[in-house]
Amino acid sequence: MIRPFARRSLRLRLMAFAAGIMAVTLIVAGFGLTALFARNLERRVGQELDTHVAQIAGALRFSPDGEISLAREPADPRFNRVFGGLYWQVTDTGTGASLRSRSLWDTELALPDDLLAPGVVHVHEIAGPRGSSLLVHEQAVVVDAGATDRRIRLSVAIDTRELDELRAGFARDIAPALVVAGLVLLIGFAVQIRAGLQPMDTLRAAIADIRAGRRKRLDGAVPSEVAPLVEEVNTLLDHQEAAMLRARDRAADLAHGLKTPLTALAADARKLRDLGAAEIADDIDELAGRMRVHVEREMARARLRHGAAAPAVALAPAAAAIVRALERTPAAEGKQVAADVPPDLAARVDSDDFNEILGNLAENAVRHAASRVLISARRDGDIVRIAVEDDGPGVDEERRAEILRRGRRLDEGGRGAAGLGLAIVGDILAETGGRLDLGTSRLGGLSATVELKA
Question: Which interval of the chain is the signal sequence (predicted)?
C-alpha cells in the first residue's frame, strides 16, 4: 500500500527532507556555537581573574608587627561596589587574618578546604552573596615576611550571572543569523532540487512528444542516474513497435483471408437473384456487407493502435478531395456539397485518420441531406474545429446522446452501415485525443463538429 506521503510530489518530499535536516543541523549548530562561546568566555574570564590574582599578589604588604595589607587595590570599579559581582579575598592561612573587597560587604567567600600548592591555580564554583553563584580562581603564594615565610591564599570570584547573561545575549544575537542562514540554505536546496530534477522534466516532455508523434525514442544523452530508465523505456517502445507491426500484419492477413469468401458470397447472391430468389440474395448481401464493414472497422482500429502519429496535416486539400469524391456518388445527385476551409489551416492528426474522420462524417451528411452539405473549419487557440452540416431532418437531442455512446449506431436495429462511420470516427478520436459533438446545423439538419489538436 502506497503511503499518502509517497504519492506527493518528489520535489516536495526532497524539500521536506532537506528542510528537516537543515533545521536539525542549525539547531545543533546553534547549541554548539553557544557552548563554544561559553567555553571561550569562561577561558577569557578565567584569564581576567588570574590577572587580578597576580595584581593582588604583587600589592601584598606586611607591617612591622606582621599585619597584612595591600599597597593598592585592583582598579576594577566592581570591586568597590557592594555586591557588584566581582570579589577578592586575601587570607593568611597561618594567622587566619583576611582582607576582603568592599563588594563583599559583610560576607566572605566560602572557599572549600582544599590543599593549595604554591603557584597552582584552583577553580571552584561556590555560593555567593544573595544566593548568587560564583566562579572562583584561587592561588596560594608564600611571601617572605622577614623572620618567617607567610602562606597567603588569594581568591578572586565573579558572579556567574554575568556569564549567563553574556551567553543568553550571544544566543539571542546568533538566532536571527541562523534563521537567515537557514532561509538562504533552503533557497539553495530548492535551486539544487530543481536542477537535479530537471532531467525528469525533460524526460516527461520527451515522453509527451513520443505520445504526440513528434519523436519516436528518448534521447540517450541524459545523466547516468536517469540513463537506465531511458534505456528501459526505449526498449519497451521497441517491443511495443514490434508488437504493433505483428498485430497490424495479422489484421491485414485476416482482411485478405475474408476478402475471397465475401466476394464468393456476393457472386452467389447475384446468381440467386438471377434465379428469382431476390429475398434470399438480399439477405446474403446484407450479411456480407455487415461482415465487410466490420472487417474495415477492425482494420482501422488495428492501424490506430499500432500506427505512429504523424505531423500536422493541411486540411483544405483533404476536404476538397473528399468533396470531389462525394460529388460522384449516387447519394449526392442533386445535392450541393461544399467545403469552406482556410488554406493554411492544419491539424495534428494522421492524414489517413483525418480522411477517415471527415469522409465518414461527410458521407453520413450526404446520405441524410435534403439538398446541401457544408464542410467548414476554423482554429480556436490550440484547437481546430471541423464542422459537417446538412439540411436533412436532423436528430433530436436525446438521440444524439445515444448515438455518441460508444458502440451505438444510427441505424442500430435496421439495415445498412450508416452507423459504422460514426463508430470509426469515435475510435479514431479516442486514440488521438479528439472530440465529437452533435448539434443542430445552421442549415436546419444535423451538425457534427470534430475537435482536433492544432
Answer: none
Tell me the Ramachandran region of residue 119: left when phi exceeds 0, alpha when psi lies from -120 to 50, beta otherwise: left
The C-alpha cell at 417 is 452501415
Distance CA 86, CA 107 (A): 13
Residues 129, 104 contacting (CB under 8 angstroms): yes
What is the Cα–Cα distance from 83 to 129, expressed in whole angstroms? 7
Cβ atoms of 291 and 259 closer than 8 Å: no
Per-residue pLDDT of the chain (454 residues; tens, 9 = 90+): 445 554 567 888 888 899 999 999 999 999 999 999 999 999 999 999 999 999 998 888 888 777 888 888 888 899 999 999 999 999 988 888 889 999 999 899 988 888 888 888 999 999 989 889 999 999 999 887 666 788 889 999 999 998 999 999 999 999 999 999 999 999 999 999 888 888 888 888 888 888 776 778 888 788 888 888 888 888 888 888 888 778 777 777 777 777 777 778 878 888 888 888 888 888 887 787 777 766 766 666 665 544 455 567 889 999 999 999 888 888 888 899 999 999 999 988 888 788 888 988 998 899 899 999 999 999 998 899 999 999 988 888 878 777 766 444 444 443 344 455 677 788 788 877 788 888 888 998 999 999 998 7
Which residues is 438 bridged to in the sheet?
448
Residues 99, 97: Cα–Cα separation, whole Å: 7
Computed over its alpha carbons, how large is the radius of gyration of the chain?
A: 49
φ, ψ of residue 74 to 5 degrees: the values are -55, 150
